[in-house]
Design brief:
Layout (H helix, E strand, L loop, with lengths): L2 H14 L3 E5 L10 E6 L2 E7 L4 H12 L12 H9 L1
Parallel strand pairs: 1-3
Antiparallel strand pairs: 2-3
Amino acid sequence: MTPDAMLSALLELAQSLNITVRTMPSGLDGQHAGGSLVRLRGKEIIFLDGYSDTADQVSALASALKGRADLENRFLPPEVREALDKA
């Protein structure tokens, strides 16, 4: 799976979990490369750094989604499952 396809698959997964994903420049000079997950007013939001390359965004998104109980019994393409396990 290409990095762009993986990013799209993870974005769809986040959306299906009712997690908002926003892309914007972080301005953090390498801290939180790719992005980060925050909880704001009870809602989960993943901020992806628009200046980061696709691989860093995939890594940040996979890390944010990793370990969620609601994904254990859900079918995910093997490449997506592997990305979550490696995150």
